[in-house]
Amino acid sequence: MDTHSLSSKFEAVASRLVPLAAIVAVAAWFIIAPEGALGKLDAIGYAVCHRLDSHSFHIGERQLPLCVRCTGEFYAAGLTLLYQALFSKRRNQFPSRGIIAVLFAFFVAFGIDGLNATVYSLKAAGGNAGFLASLPVLYEPNRILRLFTGSGMGIALAAMLFPVVNQTLWREQDNRPALEWKNLGVIVSSVLLVNLLILTDSPVVLYPIAYLSALGTLALLVTVFGLMWTMIMRQDNAFENPRQLWLTFAAGLTLALILILGIDLFRLQLTGTWGGFPGMG
After folding, report:
1. Residue 177 forms beta bridges with which residues?
2. How far apart are CA 93 and CA 76, in angstroms?
3. Number of domains, the chain
4. Using an 8 Å Cβ cutoff, are 192 and 185 in contact?
5. 263 exposed, middle or buried (CB, 10 Å; 0-12, 13-18, 19+)?
6. Model confidence pLDDT, tens digit, residues 93-140
7. Which of 69, 108, 237, 247 lies at a CB distance of 3.0 to 4.6 Å from 146, suitable for a disulfide?
8. 18 in a domain, yes or no?
9. Of 146, 144, 152, which is closest to residue 113 (Cα–Cα)?
10. Which residue range is the domain that position 245 belongs to?
C-alpha cells in the first residue's frame, strides 16, 4: 500500500473522529468548568493566568477570568487577529523592520513590567532577603501599566503569528506585509481607546472584555494547534477557501481544550481553588 493511500485513509478516519473528539472536549469543558457563563470563561483563564484577585478587574465582587495584564494581552491579541483577518486577508509577509522594532519595544516593556512586578510581589511577601535583596524594584506596579504593557504584548503576538498562519494554510497567497503602518496605527489607537474605557471600571465595558479576553486566549491556542495539525497532516498550502478549514479548526479546538482542561485539573488538584494561587498577594 503506497504512502498516498495510507495518508488518504488516515485523513478519512480523522474527518470522522476529530468532530466527535471536539464535541467530547467541549462537553468536558462545560462539565468541569465552574457554573455560569463567566465560570466557563474562568476555566480558560485558569489555564494561562495566576488569577490573583488583587491583580484583577472586578464587576462588583466578581473577579474577571484573567488578571489585568492577561486581560490586556489576550483581548488585544484577539482584536489584532480579527482585524488582520478582515483587512490583511492572505498577506503572508512579516512587517517592515520599523514595525518589528515597535513590536519588539512592546515585548520589552511587557518583560520589564512583569519582572519588576514579580520582584515587588516577592519582596512584599517577606522575601526581601538574600538574592532578592539585591534586586532593584524600579517602580511600584499598578494596573494601568499592567493593562497597557499586556495589550502591547498581545498586539505583538498576533502581528507575528498572522503571517505564519497565511504562509502555512493558503495555496494562493498575497506576498505583501500582513501589517503596515496605517493598520498598526488603527490597531494601537483602538486598543488605547478600549484600555481607557476598561479603566473606568464600568460593567458595560468589563462584561464584553471578560468575553473578549477569554475568547482571545482560546483563539490563540486554537490557531497554534490548528497550525500544528496542518503540518502533521502535511496539508501545508493546501487550502483555497476558509470553508475547507473546518477540520483544522475542530482539531485545533479539541487540542486547545485538552490542554486547558489538563492544566485546570492539575492546578485544581494542587490548589483546591478556582481562584488565584493561595498565599500569593
Report:
1. 93
2. 21
3. 1
4. no
5. middle
6. 999 999 999 999 999 999 999 999 988 887 777 656 666 667 788 999
7. 69
8. yes
9. 146
10. 3-271
Q: Which residue, 123, 121, 119, is CA-closest to 138?
A: 119
277 located within any domain: no
Rounded CA gap, 270 and 277, in Å? 9
* pLDDT tens track for 30-56: 999 999 999 999 999 999 999 999 899
Let me know: does 176 contact 93? Beta carbons within 8 Å. Answer: yes
The string of pLDDT tens digits covering residues 126-181 is 656 666 667 788 999 999 999 999 999 999 999 999 999 999 999 999 999 999 99
Weakest mean pLDDT among 131-145, 190-204, 222-236: 131-145
Q: CB of 134 within 8 A of CB of 202?
A: no
Asked whether the beta carbons of 178 and 166 are under 8 A apart, the reply is yes
Per cent of the chain over pLDDT 90 is 82
CB 118 within 8 A of CB 200: no
Q: How far apart are CA 71 and CA 205, in angstroms?
A: 13
Quick check: 261 and 32 in contact, CB under 8 A? yes
